Amino acid sequence: MITIAIPCYRPNLDYLEQAINSVMNQSLDCYELLIVDGGEDPNPDLQKLAMKYKNISLRYIYNTSDRTMAGNWNFAITSSQTDLVTLLHSDDLLCADYILKMKALADTRPDVSAFFCGATIVDEASKKMTSFPDLVKNFIRPRTKFIALQGEQ
């Protein structure tokens, strides 16, 4: 089981709905979807959108504590009810096999605390595009399949 947490602050509801649909269209159906409202006040449109999805495991919660961007992310992580958590931005999409691949990776490497994956940048029409930072990353990214970062024990 994995929590897909979407921390929000005045989200574009059309993009958010696409993000939710990308979670619903996963090839592996073992997730909890968490919508975290980090606005100054609870967003009634966001609450209404969350209530629209009665056929999936979705929770809407309002962050009453630290509503900075990092604070909302941390609140989303601590509010999850699973060992695995993904933060999904409200204007991002997941590939259909994201949960399947992350769960398989986590199952083979239970000693690892964090996993990262690549990203594809798309425009408003979902057409693939490349930004300058993405070009630079292609030159500096190691060519090995997995990279292990280790800290102090």
Which helices and strands occur, and which strands form pairs?
Layout: E1 2-8, H1 13-24, E2 31-37, H2 44-51, E3 58-62, H3 69-79, E4 84-87, H4 98-108, E5 121-122, E6 128-129, H5 132-140
Parallel strand pairs: 1-2, 1-4, 2-3
Antiparallel strand pairs: 5-6
Describe, in plain words, how this protein is organized in 3D.
The structure is a single chain. This protein is an alpha/beta fold. Helices cover 33% and strands 18% of the residues. It has five helices and six strands; from the N terminus they run βαβαβαβαββα. The protein has helices at 13-24, 44-51, 69-79, 98-108, 132-140; strands spanning 2-8, 31-37, 58-62, 84-87, 121-122, 128-129. The strands form two sheets. Strands 3-2-1-4 form a four-stranded parallel beta sheet, with helices on both faces. Strands 5-6 form a two-stranded antiparallel sheet. α2 links the parallel β2 (31-37) and β3 (58-62). The radius of gyration is 16 Å and the shape is globular.
